[in-house]
Write a structure and sequence with these properties.
Length: 303
Amino acid sequence: MNMKRIEATTLEEAYKKAAREFGCSITEINYEIVQHPTSGVMGLFKKSAIIVAARKISLDSIKSEPEIIKEELPKEKPLEKVETASNIEDAHIDNIEAKSESIKDKLLQEQEKDKVLDSFFDGNKDTTKSPKDDASISVFDDDRDSPQNRATAKEIEEKLINLMNTSCFDIDTVEVDVFNNIAHIFIDGEDAALLIGKEGYRYNALSYMLFNWINAHYGLYIKLEIAEFIQSQEEMIENYLKPIIEHVNENGRGKTKPLDGILVQIALEQLRAEFPNKYVAIKTAKDNRKFIIINNFNNSKNG
C-alpha cells in the first residue's frame, strides 16, 4: 500500500492535500494523525498538522491493480486462535493489569506535576532560624552584585529583550536581577496589560514558559512582575485569606477554594508566612485545579 506523509497548517488542509496527492475524494482515504496542530504561545512553539495517508483499496482498484492484491493478501491463512477458558481468564487478567498500570501511570504523572508546581512555588521563599527570636522567617540574601549573578542577569535580560522584540507586544522595559537563587524579572510597556491577559491567563503561560527555560538552563527559580500585576493580586489574595486565617486560628486547620496560576503561589507564600509551624501545601482537585490546605504536621496526610 502506497502511504504518504502529509503536512499542512490544519488537519482539514492536510486531508484535502492528501486527496489531491492520490487523485480521489477525502472519503476514499485512510489516514492516521501523527501530530495535531497547535498555535503555540505568543507565536512560539507553533506546530503543523501531520498525517500519514493512503488510498483505500476498492473493487475497481483490485481489478486495475492486481499487484496490490498480491502484496496485501497473505499466502497462507493463519490458524485461528481457539478461545478456551484458560485463554479467556488470561485475557481478563491482562486487561485488569493493563488498567492498573494505566491508573498507576496517571497517578505518577499527577505526582510529577505537583513536584514541578511545588518546586516552582517553593523557590520564591527561603526560611531559616532568626538569632533574635528563633522563629522561621523569610530571608533576603541580596547577592545581586556578585560577578556570576550580574553576568547571569545580563544574559537572561538580553534574551528576554530579543523575545519581546520578536513578539507583537509593545514592551519597552525589561529588567532582570538575580539574587537569593531567584531571577527577578520586571516587564512593562504600553501593551503590559495585553501581556497579562484576561484574568492573568497569558501571565500564567509566560511564567511557566520562563520557569521551564530558566530553571533548566540556569538552575534558578523566577519571580515575574508585569507592570503592577503581582502587587494588585497580592492585595486581593490578602483580603480573601483573612476569613480563612481566622478559621484556621479557631479550628487548627482549613483550606482555600481552587485557585488559578499565580494566585496559588501568592496564597501559598502568605499562608506559610502566617503559619510557619503548620503544614501548608498545594493539593490537586479532581478537575486538576489547585488549592491549598493548612493542617498540623502530624495530620498532613489527612488533607
